[in-house]
Write a structure and sequence with these properties.
heterodimer; A: Four Helix Bundle (Hemerythrin (Met), subunit A); elongated; B: mainly alpha; Cytochrome C Oxidase, Chain A
Chain lengths: ~210, ~525
């Protein structure tokens, strides 16, 4: 028998009540503005770092004192950890788009695990560098300000992902409405991009 | 038989007012102080923002008058001069000009774009309380020997943390306002159809989001060095690292909302549609782009003020302003403007801003030595100070004009019109007297004869600031003593064009009843014209 299709949206139909009025994209738009502001914060910090480094190289011929070590192996691992987390957070977005809730939870959990690893790696890096704020200003002030602020941003991204994970557990996200997960992923990607800049400017080019 | 049902159309929410639903309070909305502290209602937050920013503004104007009077006739203790100077700048630029615009936008923009709520109301509430607490702590830190030139280490730390809190809160409030405009517009209201004040806030807010974090970065570096280090790198010369935020071209960002307020006030009071609206919007956007000043960091780049980009921006910014001026004149000529106090405030704002921008172009002429090294040696920059005061005066005039223009919407009453008109004249004279004499002092390196008159000119500037103080107080009194018996209609001036004039005066908790889709930038004129045609 041929299917009967009701195409008139105003026609009365029995069934579930209509969904509430959608306020889609608000969280995505708000997150985009917040990430823009955070990006400018780091651009400001790194611009000062580059200006002082250039000036020091011109004035005294060196920027990093002889007794300070800025290793590259640990920052490389940290960069790799965050790059992996970009894939896992995007995995969560892809999973929720397909209503695959189990994979969404798994992807968010792995993302948080990678972020926790990053925090541990950062702590280890600090112990290796042995930067002294009293004896090596402004290098020490700048490196602690930049990497410390980034660490705080990574923790804020973890809180964002956790909150969206709880909302996903509460069934608030579906393939039709998953702005929260997408917004958290966008925030995450920008935090990783900022670390890429820090990694390149401070640890690679020294 | 298989039946494929079309998804039911979305329905308007149940009877609960939208404001309450978005605040998340459901049916239980506490009243009194608890209700105020916990509110996410954009109207309550907007009123509180405006009241608090006017208070800080009055304090800033008063302190700057003291500073100018001291320059004319030294009477203040020397160890307090730097603190009074720094706090008056923070108060005038950030706590008055920018914060008042955020407050007005928080109140008005949801009404203008027909959204019934501000985006992220809890975040907006957190932003307000963070801003208020931060501002009070900044003032407290200055009072206990903090600030950029303070000698108490703990008080300086408090100042740095509190100032950072103020900036973060302002950024959060800006995100709420911008998201409201971008994502919560009523059906049919395309971005090109939003009211000009809303557009000016999109431009200004974007600039604040791009520049205030750079100021935050400077504060962060100073704090780390001062609190954890020995304070020998960023802890030295703190004000010099922050001064770019209070000078050209960055200071122009505080005037961007004024452009929108003036455009809306003139169009409404003229009763005419704004012609060449797209060009006006482009001019405001260009003004915003040319106001970007986060790169002007003389501490790290001493020659920045002689570079081509800085010079070009200072001169080119006159072009979008002239385009706006042409648009405003066209609007006034195509209608029959009501001569209200808000019109006087708007015209005064335009006049003061024109002089400030012209002064900014003069600032770029190197032979005049207006930003010469001599001034740095003297530890003063009178021309730049005068120009900053003119820009702040222009923003304040527009803000006060906007407050009076939208008073029926904000307070449910008209301001006392006679007092408000007097205040407009006093504010205009005060703004000019506050800024122009200092700009004249700036020429004293080039013209030796002016050196002897410097003290008298500083005294005139102090008098101008006192007049500004009086004008702000007069507007507040005018609003408090307004005609409470004459309840304004929804379209209070009878010439409303944009959606806020559909809402009751003052609006109900839910702001609007059902809104029809918007079909132009002036939906009320569309309705009136349709009614006349039928």
């Amino acid at each position: 028998m041929a299917a009967t299709v009701l195409v008139d949206p105003t026609a009365a139909v029995d069934g579930p009540p209509p969904p509430p009025e959608s306020r889609a994209r608000v969280l995505l738009v708000g997150t985009a503005f917040v990430t823009a502001a955070i990006a400018m914060l780091f651009i400001g910090l790194i611009a000062v770092y580059l200006a002082l480094r250039t000036q020091a190289l011109v004035d005294v011929g060196s920027w990093i004192p002889a007794d300070v070590v800025l290793p590259l192996t640990q920052p490389n691992m940290m960069m790799l950890t965050l790059v992996l987390s970009m894939f896992t957070v995007q995995w969560a977005v892809s999973a929720i788009k397909n209503d695959d809730r189990a994979n969404t939870y798994l992807a968010l959990a792995v993302t948080l695990l990678l972020a926790f690893s990053f925090i541990v790696e950062e702590g280890y890096l600090y112990s290796l560098m042995k930067l002294n704020l009293m004896t090596t200003p402004p290098l020490a002030s700048m490196i602690y300000a930049i990497t410390g602020t980034h660490l705080a941003m990574i923790i804020s991204a973890m809180i964002f992902v956790m909150l969206m994970g709880f909302r996903a557990l509460a069934g608030q996200f579906t393939s039709r409405q998953h702005d929260g997960i997408a917004a958290a992923a966008m925030y995450w990607h920008v935090m990783v991009a900022i670390y890429a800049l820090i990694w390149f400017v401070i640890f690679v080019t020294k | 038989m298989a039946i494929t049902e079309t998804r039911p159309a979305t329905q308007p929410p149940a009877d609960t007012p939208e404001t309450e639903r978005f605040v998340g309070l459901g049916d239980h909305v506490p009243g009194g102080l608890a209700g105020f502290i916990g509110t996410g209602d954009h109207k309550s937050l907007g009123r509180a923002y405006m009241a608090a920013s006017l208070f800080f503004g009055v304090v800033g104007v008063g302190l700057d008058a003291l500073y100018r009077a001291h320059q004319a006739s030294a009477f203040l203790p020397l160890d307090r001069i730097g603190q009074i100077f720094a706090f008056s700048r923070i108060a005038l630029v950030l706590l008055l000009a920018v914060s008042f615009a955020i407050g007005l936008a928080t109140y008005l923009i949801p009404l203008q774009v027909g959204s019934r709520t501000i985006a992220f109301p809890r975040a907006a509430a957190m932003a307000f309380w963070g801003w208020l607490i931060g501002s009070v702590l900044v003032a407290t830190s200055f009072a206990i020997d903090g600030g950029p030139s303070g000698t108490s280490a703990k008080a300086v730390d408090l100042y740095l943390v509190a100032f950072a809190l103020v900036i973060i809160s302002m950024l959060l409030a800006t995100v709420c306002v911008l998201t409201t405009v971008i994502a919560l517009r009523t059906p049919g209201m395309r971005l090109m159809r939003i009211p000009m004040f809303a557009w000016s806030m999109v431009v200004a807010g974007s600039l604040w989001l791009l520049t205030l974090p750079v100021l935050l970065a400077s504060l962060l570096l100073i704090y780390v060095d001062h609190h954890y280090g020995n304070g020998t790198s960023f802890g030295q010369g703190q004000w010099l690292q922050l001064s770019w935020a209070f000078g050209q071209p960055q200071v122009y960002v505080v005037a961007i909302p004024a452009l929108g307020i003036v455009t809306d006030v003139l169009a409404t009071l003229s009763g005419a549609r704004q012609e060449r609206r797209g060009l006006m919007m482009a001019a405001i956007a260009a003004f915003g782009i040319l106001s970007f000043g986060a790169y002007v960091q003389p501490v790290y780049s001493p020659e920045i003020m002689n570079q081509a980009v800085f010079v070009a921006m200072g001169v080119l910014i006159l072009l979008p302003f002239l385009a706006l001026l042409a648009g405003w004149i066209t609007t006034l000529r195509s209608g029959k403007p009501l001569l209200t106090s808000s019109l006087l405030f708007a015209l005064g704002s335009v006049a003061v801003l024109a002089i400030a921008l012209f002064g900014g172009a003069l600032f770029m002429i190197k032979p005049l030595q207006l930003h010469d090294a001599v001034w740095i040696e003297r530890g003063a920059t009178p021309f730049a100070d005068g120009q900053m005061l003119l820009v702040v005066a222009a923003a304040t005039l527009a803000s006060l004009g906007g407050l009076i223009h939208w008073a029926p919407k904000i307070f449910g009453r008209f301001a006392a019109e006679g007092l408000a008109k007097l205040a407009a004249v006093v504010a205009l004279v005060g703004g000019l007297l506050a800024g122009l004499p200092l700009m004249v002092v700036g020429f004293s390196v080039k013209f030796d004869g002016l050196t002897g008159a410097a003290k008298a000119l500083q005294g005139i500037s102090a008098f101008g600031l006192v007049l500004m103080f009086v004008a702000i107080a007069a507007v507040v009194i005018g609003l408090l003593t307004g005609d409470g018996d004459n309840k304004p209609e929804a379209d209070a001036w009878g010439r409303g064009q944009t959606l806020e004039w559909i809402a009751a005066s003052p609006p109900t908790a839910a702001d609007f009843d059902a809104l029809d889709p918007v079909r132009s930038a002036e939906p009320l004129l569309d309705i009136n014209e349709a009614q006349e045609a039928s």
